[in-house]
Amino acid sequence: MLKLTQTFDIHTDVISSILAKEETVRRGKDCADVADTRILNVERDGGVVYTWKGASGTTRVGKYDPHTKQNKLLYTFDKQVCISSCSLNKEETLLAVSLTRGGEECFKPVSTCLTLLIEIHPVNNTKVLKAVDCRVKVQFLYPQPSRNTALESHLLLAAEDGYVEQYHILLVKQEGYRVVMQNQERLVRDRVAEDFCWAQWDSGPQRLFYLTCRDKHVLKCAQFFPDRNFEILFELPLELSIIPFTSVRFVNFGHDHYQEEDNEGLKMVVFTDRTGTMCVCYSHPVYKQKDRMYTIAFVHRGFSKTYTVALEQTTMSTSTANLQPLFIHLGYYIVVYLAGHFLHLINCRQQDLLCHSLFLSGADSLVEELGTESVVVNVPGRRLLDIKSGRIYTTDISPDFLLKLLSSSRPEAQRLASLHCMLVHLGPDQDLEEKIINWISENVMSFDAFDQIQEYILASLYRICYQQSLSLDKVLPYSSVFEKKELPVALTAIPGVKCTPELLAQPLIKGKGRSLQGYWEELQWIVERLKYFEAVSSPRYRTTQIKSDWTKLQLALNSEKKKSLNHLRHLEENTKKVLSMVDTWRLDKRIVPLFQEEDQQQRVLVGLMVDKLREHLNRHLPRLGKKKIDMLVVNYVAKLLEMVRHMLESVWLKLKLGPTVLCLKQQGSSEDWVMFHVMCRILEATRGLCLPLPPGYSTLLTVLGVRCLPRHTFLQYVDHGFLQLTEPFVSRLMTDLDNSDGNEELKFSVLKRLPESMEQRVCQLWDHPISSACISREYVRTRLEKYTKTKGSVLLDKDETCFKPKFLPLSYLASILSHMEEQASNPFEEQENVDARFVEETALKQTLIKLGFQDK
């Protein structure tokens, strides 16, 4: 499940270089015992600070630069010492080292711990910062790269006594290259925190989280700024019913190889993301061997969830190295991993249902790089450090593994979670997206728990718009399962996992102006909106909310008064904006013939969706402004239409379909049938969510329906409203098919199902006597409606001798038509004048039929 990519290996990147240099110094003598290399710290710039024991009884400190792939010696102690903490400033002019008592050959100060500040450019003075009987952690601040701070450094010093201090170190240049401390005897320092039992340093955003344990447990955060100032910007009371720690814990302050890890107590870490998320993750002490408990406090959602996992006895590990799970931050997800037992991929943005997270056990949860004996810690940049092997990995989720979880043998909840993970977390990836579409085309039938096409559309649109504006997270739909009246049990529970939710106390976010820019501004807005979203019944937009309005508009479209509706004209303006943004990069190649015709129904639905979504965002996110909301909404609907076309193009190319698909004279092939089936499922999925389709979709689907379905089945699809008889389709039907008995029957069946207005237009395209009769009847009806009786009687008296007396009704009719023909032009454009002889014969035939003298 986890994809670990090795970026550093202490054996290949460091030890080989050290051995080569030591061998050169000792002139080929055996030097295999000179390298006892250990990683001490990983700085913000990615540099790895490490130590090793020299052959001459020295202890050396070096740095590996991941950008240049070079190693640099920083400092050498003339005896073997035990370094428990170490940090290098950004300019590589100062080295802070915390020494502790170790073996017999370790450095033995009077106190247990000795903290030194060493000038290393060049090696010069050494200042004692602390000589105490408790362990001390050191960490240099790394200001923004654009700020010139070469002559000023800031150092954090955190002691097990429960306090953190910040030292301000001013530097001066001597002789053009020497950088030394200025007034090193009196360094300015500030007290940052005190009375804490747990502290975590985040080097990326330069933040210090710590947990106070005086009266109650309060999580606080100090934000450090480039101008040497810091502020306590965040406080959150935590209800911890258990004793958190037996001793002070430090997270991300490097690794102390001389202090044993306490695996039985509470393990805690805080994860933040630029999107405004904050998750406090901690495990519970192990009381029973058969289960594990861990809690994720979603600060940005206002609640926490405690998970209790029952471990399978058959997979119980005898190792005690990893009694507590490892927490890994991947941005959109948090991974909870217990080697040999389970891997829980928790969606930290969407926590409404358990099915949007993924729980794996047994062989599925195995991460080969992280064995049961590994000691793994988080390092900056969302990476992992394996202390024992000396390797650093970047972490991500394996798309190939997620694709395997889509197989039919998997539970539907796993398939839903893996689909969302690929679409939202891993996307956009063209190759992966093609594989997902291929999976959809091969599994076109909807599952019991969810509709995979609806999930593909909503999750992809959510990712696209969510990246443009983080505020849309709470108001845009991301899954169609919420449209179901009753949720399946498979989506609300995980076998073997118990989930207990609890409300969190309201966090306090302090600071003003510059202090709350960036992440803190986003988190503050999210926290402030929590109460509003809790009070609103449905802050998240549901596409089905427009169904009633859409039904009314469909009735209006079929009425004669539709042109008088101003609302329709307004919706048409919305549609024009959307279609102007639709990507037409392959329109000229006509891979799939969409966006090439007027489709009044789909155009109105496009405009209606823009209207309703814009109204929803203006109500819930007024801070975005109407102009930006309008842009976001238009882009949302345009991407929806593009997505449908992209799905069709992918299947079209996979099936190797060509222009013959649009030929009605040929029967559909097996590939045409697959395309028709996929398009039917897309239509069903979009109708279920009341989503619009690209103009031309209905025509293409109906053409495929004629080619693939038996004639009677095709007409049933039409009668039930699944296939739409569009004017381009009927025009193609009338012109492409000959007048054989079967085709003639189909044409008649289609004509009688058309609205009267469309029937009049398409009848002219069919070269058939009955079609001509229809044209003639319509022509006569139109003329007679405009002709008054007085004009008719005058005409009859005036020229009575020109008609045959044998059949006076016909003579009277012909007289009227002849007179009209002389006075008026033909109303049918691009048609020749009506043949009076033909009209006479047709009228006679129709009259005889009416009188019962002739059969139809």
**Spatial order of strands in the largest sheet:** 19-15-16-17-18-32
What structural class do you assign from the helix and strand content?
A: alpha+beta
In this structure, how is the largest beta sheet organized?
Answer: 6 strands, mixed
Number of helical regions: 20
Helix content: 25-40%
Strand content: 15-25%
Overall shape:
elongated
Distance between the termini: 73 Å
Would you report the number of β strands? Answer: 32
Overall pLDDT score = 83
Rg over alpha carbons? 39 Å
Describe the structure.
- With 856 residues, the protein is an alpha+beta fold.
- Among the domains are: 543-724, no CATH class; 773-851, no CATH class.
- 34% of the residues lie in helices and 24% in strands.
- The strands form seven sheets. The protein has a six-stranded mixed beta sheet with strand order 19-15-16-17-18-32, with no helix packed on it.
- It is elongated.
- The model is unreliable at 103-109, 792-798 and 800-805 (pLDDT under 50).
Strand-helix topology:
Layout: E1 2-9, H1 10-25, E2 38-42, E3 48-53, E4 59-65, E5 70-77, E6 82-88, E7 94-100, E8 113-120, E9 123-132, E10 136-140, E11 152-159, E12 163-174, E13 178-181, E14 188-194, E15 196-202, E16 207-212, E17 218-224, E18 230-237, E19 249-251, E20 268-272, E21 278-283, E22 291-298, E23 303-310, E24 326-329, E25 333-338, E26 342-347, E27 358-361, E28 376-379, E29 383-386, E30 391-397, H2 399-404, H3 412-426, H4 430-442, H5 452-468, E31 497-503, E32 508-509, H6 519-535, H7 547-557, H8 566-581, H9 600-620, H10 626-655, H11 670-689, H12 697-708, H13 711-719, H14 727-736, H15 741-751, H16 756-763, H17 769-786, H18 789-798, H19 808-823, H20 836-851
Parallel strand pairs: 15-19
Antiparallel strand pairs: 1-30, 2-3, 3-4, 4-5, 6-7, 7-8, 8-9, 10-11, 11-12, 12-13, 12-14, 15-16, 16-17, 17-18, 18-32, 20-21, 21-22, 22-23, 23-31, 24-25, 25-26, 26-27, 28-29, 29-30
Helix pairs in contact: 3-5, 4-10, 5-10, 7-9, 8-9, 8-10, 9-10, 10-11, 11-12, 19-20
